[in-house]
Amino acid sequence: MAPNVATSSTTSEAETSEMKFDVIGRVGLARHGRLRLPHSVVETPVFMPVGTQGTMKGVLPEQLIDMDCRILLCNTYHLGHRPGHERVRAAGGLHKMMNWPRSILTDSGGFQMVSLSKLMTVDENGVNFESPHTGEMMALPPEKSIEIQQALGADIMMQLDHVIHVLTTGDIVEEAMHRSIRWLDRCTKAHTRTDQTLFPIVQGGLNLDLRKKCVEEMAKRAKVGIAIGGLSGGEEKSSFWRVVATCCAVLPPHLPRYVMGVGFPVDLVICSLLGADMFDCVYPTRTARFGTALVRRGGLMQLNQNRYKTDFEPIDDRCTCHTCRTYTRAYIHGVIGKETVGCHLVSVHNIQHQLDLMRDVRRAIDEEKVGEFLNSFLGEQFSGGEVPQWVRDAVGHMGYKLVV
Ligand SMILES: [Zn+2]
């Protein structure tokens, strides 16, 4: 009898120990980490592109592998409606269905409901919303969110949290925070698969004391990693970076910190240097649809402008993406807004831009050249303009000297 018991317990320990985070380099507050997940090893800081319905808009999984993308985010809300989580389960899970062998993170579905549903209420049971497809009122309790996410089978699942608008003030901020802690406990109870991990989400709005309180409770319950939620909702940048800095300062170092919904290049760099490790945003692919390419020099390149009509350079001559190796600004200018290939070409470039930016941050940490990197990055992004005050404040807080 005994050997059997020992074997089974060893197996389950082996499964959980497969998922772990190691900090392999550190400069100031920033870390270069390695997150081991069941489907890939993710180097952090990392940007996770968002594949809404089990597909990246205009980009194939094979192309993401070529870019060395190791982890994607998929939206539970969209997949739960179409094709439906039961069908994804029947297809063998999300990895198999979308032909993506590497890691996936799914959100809880709650945030999408808040942003997409006309009618949405929250009570202790969960989130109630009107289905945009059938018009019926539906309930999403924490247990249901986990059931759906377990059917999808992502490496990382997110807890259902009580999302309120970031500019909300008053007692509701603290109530939503406490409710999110209770809902995490319900999610944990419903979580049965050992090959998936569950991230808690730190809430507390822009109130730094509430954030600290929430970190304390959530960190106690976190196993592999933790998220900082409720930001990027239109708050002042001066509040945004202070919340990230405050949470990172009190979070235990062994947990990777995922700042949800962050994707502007400057935000990625500043948050990484403040000690955050994971980010996601639809920004690079959404902005590509309007013909906007992300570039180091000047930040943005609007390829629909007439000046690119006869510009036969690649978007960025230092970029190694397929688009920059193959097509000119003039070609993209000619097809953008007319042919879907235009959006595809810019999306490929923009995702590569974000992945390369994070790689450069990790390299700067490894080579202990963070100050040099920061000056060269900000100098290029804001060439011809001023570095915003919030960036200067955050850089000052980290103890680096800006010469740009
Ligand atoms: Zn490129």
UniProtKB/TrEMBL annotation:
Q: Show the SUPFAM superfamilies listed in the entry.
A: tRNA-guanine transglycosylase
Domain of life the protein comes from: Eukaryota
So where does this one cross the membrane?
Answer: none
Record domain tRNA-guanine(15) transglycosylase-like: where: 30-380
What GO cellular component entries does it have? cytosol
Name any Gene Ontology BP term: tRNA modification
Fetch the Pfam families from UniProt: TGT
Question: Where in this protein does the record put region RNA binding?
Answer: 261-267, 285-289
Q: Which InterPro entries match?
A: TGT, TGT-like_sf, tRNA_ribo_trans-like
The annotated active site, in chain numbering, is: D107, D280
- For Zn(2+), which residues are the binding ones? C319, C321, C324, H349
Annotated binding of substrate, by residue: D107, S108, G109, G110, F111, D161, Q203, G230
Q: What is known about its subunit structure?
A: Heterodimer of a catalytic subunit and an accessory subunit.
Q: Which family does it belong to?
A: Belongs to the queuine tRNA-ribosyltransferase family.
User: Which purpose does this protein serve, as stated in its record?
Assistant: Catalytic subunit of the queuine tRNA-ribosyltransferase (TGT) that catalyzes the base-exchange of a guanine (G) residue with queuine (Q) at position 34 (anticodon wobble position) in tRNAs with GU(N) anticodons (tRNA-Asp, -Asn, -His and -Tyr), resulting in the hypermodified nucleoside queuosine (7-(((4,5-cis-dihydroxy-2-cyclopenten-1-yl)amino)methyl)-7-deazaguanosine). Catalysis occurs through a double-displacement mechanism. The nucleophile active site attacks the C1' of nucleotide 34 to detach the guanine base from the RNA, forming a covalent enzyme-RNA intermediate.
NCBIfam families, A to Z = Q_tRNA_tgt (TIGR00430), tgt_general (TIGR00449)
Name by which UniProt lists this protein: Queuine tRNA-ribosyltransferase catalytic subunit 1
Gene behind the chain: tgt-1
